[in-house]
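User: Please fill in residues for this 28-position structure.
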């Protein structure tokens, strides 16, 4: 697993991607 402290931007991007996918699932 990646080091979140070393790559906070990547972790944020992943969180946004998960939130977007969840929103799409609930929208459909």
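Assistant: Residues filled in for all 28 positions:
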């Amino acid at each position: 697993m990646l080091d979140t402290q070393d790559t906070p931007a990547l972790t944020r991007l992943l969180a946004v991607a998960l939130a977007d996918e969840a929103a799409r699932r609930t929208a459909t």
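For context: The two ends are 31 Å apart (CA to CA).
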